Amino acid sequence: MTPSLSTLKCVTLNLLNDRSRWPQRRSILAAQLAELQPDVIALQEVTLPDNNAQWLADQLGGYALHFSPKTGGKRKREGIALLSRHPIERAATLDLQTQSRVAQLVEINYNAHSLAVVNAHLFWWPGESNERNQQVRLMLDWLKDYLPGRAVVVCGDFNGTPASSAIRLMRQRFTSAYAARHGREPEYTCPTPLVVNQPIKNARAVLRSIRRVIIQLATDHTFKPWRGTLDYIFVNDRVRVLECDVTLNQPSPSDPTIYPSDHFGLTATLEIS
To answer: Is 164 exposed, middle or buried (0-12, 13-18, 19+ CB in 10 A)?
Structure first.
């Protein structure tokens, strides 16, 4: 007997933990998400204590939310979140052991299909990183019980470009949804043309600017503005990719310097078996 199939729409986005222009950014982000009507939303760099992921869930309506804070002293400042329109049957969090980072998993019962959705925000460092590779290995070990018997989707900001060893490790077990549809990864997902408030008023924004210069020097040894693909949706062999596109990429209609985040989002329409 041929198994039944169901389609599901999944979005991933790094929200940007720098609160610069959030009151303006959040309105266009909520509008663009409402237009997409995703079943599942994976968010990284969710800020605390106000929890902007919860604000989005409240604005959009109809979503259950699972939030996982960072570990250690950062647990009161930032985390990651999964929003689901379908009942969450079980949720778990994995300590990724470096930079206070975590991954999270929710099990969703969707039209009689069992689906595991993972959300992760991996180690940041320009170029290659043994720590990031180890975080990928931790996630793959964590997911062994789900493979190959269940549909699995892994979303997030991997902080690694398509040629990096961390992404090559992911491809050993999973397929990139965007590459499955387009034969390659996006030209870039970060940074967007978002302009933060000037002058820079906080240390995090200063560090973010310095970080981008370091990335550029590490990748092609120039001071050219860097941009690249850091965001992915991966699927296992129980999931067929129908569509996958760069989304959440439109500026405010009233101000072309305001975008939802400094990352673009990815949206995948998936067929679950």
So the answer is: buried
Question: Is the distance from CB of 117 to CB of 148 less than 8 angstroms?
Answer: no
CA distance 37 to 90: 23
Q: What is the pLDDT of residues 203-242, one digit of tens each?
A: 666 666 666 666 656 655 556 678 999 999 999 999 999 9
Is residue 210, in this structure, part of any structural domain at all?
A: no
Specify the residue for token string 């919860």: 54
Question: DSSP per residue over 110-126, as a string?
Answer: ETTEEEEEEEEEPPP-S
- Domain assignment present for 204: no
The answer for residues whose C-beta is within 8 angstroms of residue 221's C-beta and 6 or more apart is none
Question: Coil, strand, or helix at residue 129?
Answer: coil
Q: Which range of residues forms the domain containing residue 20?
A: 6-195+227-272
What's the pLDDT tens digit per position in 20-50? 899 999 999 999 999 999 999 999 999 999 9
pLDDT at 44: 98
